[in-house]
Every structure is written in structure tokens, then in C-alpha cells.
Design brief:
Layout lengths: L3 H29 L5 H30 L1 H21 L1 H6 L1
Helix pairs in contact: 2-3
């Protein structure tokens, strides 16, 4: 990146993505759980996200350190493609939620 506005633009895009996706996930949790269990549900949701992020971060850091940034981004792209493929295969199950 050559100029500071590019960094700020990326921060804005990331904030937009986070605002859209996290809000939808939290709404899904809130609508799926009885009111008296929502606090517990949000706690388990954040626990699950944290447990998933730990090995993902370790893998990304290991790839970055040993093979470089390109390998890390390629691996991330491959995981994203695999996730889309799994969603397409299981779309009926996903739509029932």
C-alpha cells in the first residue's frame, strides 16, 4: 500500500463486514433460544468462535512464519472455497436453520 487512505479504506471495509456478519449471527442466536437462556447461548457462541479462532490463528501464524504471506493467503482462500463447497452440498440443511 502506498498511501494512508488505502489503509483507512481497508479498515472501513473490515468494519462493514464485521458489522454485517456479526450482527446477523447474534440475531440468529437470539431468535433461536428462549429468553431465559440467551446469556448462556451468547456465552457458548463466543466460546465456539474463540475455540475455532485459536487453531486458525496458530495455523496462519505457522504458515506465515515458515512459508510466507502468500502461502497464508492461499490457504485462507482454499478454506473459503471448501466452506462454500460444503454449504452448497448441505444447502437444504442450512436453509432449515
Amino acid at each position: 500500500m502506498q498511501t494512508p487512505w488505502q489503509v483507512w479504506g481497508l479498515f472501513a471495509l473490515y468494519g462493514l463486514h464485521l458489522g454485517i456478519s456479526k450482527g446477523l449471527l447474534l440475531a440468529l442466536v437470539a431468535n433461536s433460544i428462549p429468553a431465559n437462556l440467551r446469556g448462556t447461548a451468547f456465552g457458548f457462541f463466543n466460546l465456539a468462535v474463540g475455540l475455532a479462532l485459536l487453531p486458525a490463528s496458530l495455523l496462519a501464524g505457522g504458515l506465515w512464519q515458515t512459508l510466507g504471506a502468500e502461502a497464508t493467503f492461499i490457504a485462507g482462500s482454499m478454506f473459503a472455497i471448501a466452506a462454500v463447497f460444503l454449504l452448497v452440498i448441505n444447502r437444504k440443511k442450512c436453509l432449515q436453520i
